[in-house]
Amino acid sequence: MYKFLKNNYELISYSIIALFLELLIIRLVGTEIRIFAYLSNLVLLATFVGLGLGMLTKRYLPLSISGFFLFITSVIVSTNYIVRWPNLEFKLFTGITELLAPLSESYIWFQIDTFSKSGIIIGLLLMALLFIILVLIFAPIGQALGKAIAKGNKPIMAYSINIAASLVGLWAFQAFSTVRFTPYFGIIIALTALVCLSKDRIERLLLIAILITSIAYLSPKVESKTVTYWSPYQKLTLSPAVYPPSELPRPEGWYLEVNNVGYMSLLNLGKIYKSEAEKTLDEVYPEGWPISREFSDHYYLPYQIKPDAKNVLIIGAGGGNDAAAAIRARVPHVDAVEIDPTIIEIGKKYHYEKPYREASVSAIIDDGRAYLERTDKKYDLVVMGLADSHTLSSSLTNVRLDNYLYTKESLTKIKDVLTDNGVLSLSFEVARPWIGDRIQRSIEDVFGAKPKVFEVRSDGVYGWGGVVFVISKNPQVLNNILTGNAPLADFMAANAKNFNSNINPLTDDWPYLYLDKPRLPVIHILVALILGGGLLLVAKRLVGRGSLNWSMFFWGAAFLLFEFQNVSKSSLLFGATWQTNLFTVSAILMLLLGANWAVYKKLIKQRIAFLLLVITIIFEIIFPLHLLNTFSLWQKIIFGSFILNLPLLFGGIIFTNLFAKAKNKAGALGANFLGAVFGGFAEMLSFYFGIHLLLVFVLALYMAGYLLATRSASKLYFK
């Protein structure tokens, strides 16, 4: 074993650091520059471009380049330097989101359209510059990795070591995230690894200087009254709630930001506060507060609508406001589902009413959709909190953490878990009318009746409020409730909202709540054109009149596009949790190891492997995924993972054969990485065609790669 590790030290080390650093940069940039929280696969593609170009270029790239630009990246994402331009004032790099606001893409929340159209150009240029910086981090690592793989005369063994070590890097990063280390500490770890891997004395001294500078710059700075957590999903910043001067009462509490954006609050809305607030309101409005006092607490409102609820399910429980309201309403049992364990811990520690410490409340750390699929409980009331997310469920998908909660299939599961007299109360901050219409129509399609839709606001006295959608499993139940509670019926009528844009409802195949219709978002198109065009120019210059292995290019495109849609579907089976992403990617890497073993043992001929690849993809196209939800959890893990990933086994067999026969091993891998970038850009087609239809494009890419290889046309020239 010692001899094996010694002989393959560089290959193992670079494989581990490449994947660890890839995930680290995705997390850091996606957190600190908000636009990348919604486009995190763009950061992934930058790492692929860097690794691919590094393998293709022949000019030596010292590791100090990686170290320098790694430090530069940490400075960029942590500095809010103000730039003043004619008619513009913005934060350099961290203000890219606001610069792109005039594009008015609705999935970018809390944007302020205050900039001129020239701001779009500046924003895109800054995004392109950051992309180049990320490429430069990974290019030297890619070159070193390519050389380590190409060294020796056992390409299959080298490739297998690369996959196994990448698996180690994947789990190492997950362990790093689970213990909640800051990504800035991860940069220090990566720089230390580069110091150890550098061979040249001057290069090592440069890296040591960069490491020392980074430690000094990134050392934790004391922030008064602010606590920062790095959960497995996102950056959480907790600070005391501070309000602008007002005569109105304001609840004591905490303000929680997710990825530097306001997300939720933890408020003390107990009886003592409400009693004092009533007195203050009497003083400020002696003739009566124009807002309804009885129904203006939107956290407590569901329990006024369904006062006899015995079992309540809260989806998106957050810091505990909804659960605290249930306790005040004396609900006997509450299941509070929240995907982020750190938010639950924050609620336990900081929420004034300590709802998660009550015996009647069961805090369940799980994806809301996954819980609905697994539970056999029945509930009198289901409360869907403000679950709008600012984070993608994975860098391998366009699906956000909350997308699958609002599809027709999800609402059908909610209807199933309701008792015959059960009620659904869904709250949402409807920023655009068509978002409200989409939710309203989806509920109507599932429940067969229009929900009651109304707005609940309190000018901050009881929190932010929002638009509430209420429906009962049996429509007559809600009618009876309102008939017996005239003040509540009057309140709903006075604050009613009606959405009539006839927009398409959400489905599991098209779950994009924040996109107005099936189309390619403008930002995605512009980014693809700018970065794709630049990549072609750079690749042409690097490769020159040398050949690019186009069969490997198409194979990489097909592989990553398949993986993208596969992660989205895995979220439907197992939940949009970090465990799902970890196990899905791990299963893929292990299948690739199995493919290598099959090639080494010559178990399957290449033609047979391609035939099986085509058959399994066609099977996935026609196979109804929802049938797997009838299985138990372990059956889904075994059969679901096998069915979803089986094409990669046969695709991996062909890839390994192509790689083993390639004369230029590093060049073949470089072409494969560049192809993966193309596949990553192609994922945006799901915005138009849906997720499932991506399999047709995957099949076309695989067929193109195979035909080029079998016809000895895999080496074409840039002209």
What are the defining features of this structure?
719 residues; alpha/beta; Rossmann fold; Growth Hormone, Chain: A; 3 domains; seven-stranded mixed beta sheet; 27 helices; 15 strands; 56% helix; disordered C terminus
Layout of SSEs?
Layout: H1 2-7, H2 9-32, H3 35-38, H4 40-56, H5 63-78, E1 82-85, E2 88-91, H6 96-99, H7 118-150, H8 155-178, H9 183-197, H10 201-218, E3 227-230, E4 235-240, E5 253-258, E6 261-267, H11 271-284, H12 301-305, E7 311-315, H13 321-328, E8 333-338, H14 341-350, E9 361-365, H15 368-374, E10 379-384, H16 408-417, E11 418-428, H17 433-447, E12 452-456, E13 466-472, H18 475-483, H19 486-494, H20 522-543, E14 547-549, H21 550-574, H22 578-600, H23 606-622, H24 633-661, H25 665-682, H26 686-689, H27 694-710, E15 715-717
Parallel strand pairs: 7-8, 7-10, 8-9, 10-11
Antiparallel strand pairs: 1-2, 3-4, 4-5, 5-6, 11-13, 12-13, 14-15
Helix pairs in contact: 2-4, 2-7, 2-8, 2-9, 4-7, 4-25, 5-7, 5-9, 5-10, 7-25, 8-22, 9-10, 16-17, 21-22, 21-24, 21-25, 21-27, 22-24, 23-24, 23-27
Count of individual domains: 3
Beta strand %: 5-15%
Mean of residue pLDDT values? 86
Low-pLDDT residue intervals, each spanning 5 or more residues: 713-719
What is the rounded Rg? Answer: 27 Å
Q: State the helical fraction.
A: 55-70%
Alpha-beta content class: alpha/beta
The largest sheet has its strands arranged as: 9-8-7-10-11-13-12
Number of helices: 27
Gap between N and C termini: 48 Å
Mind describing the biggest β-sheet? 7 strands, mixed
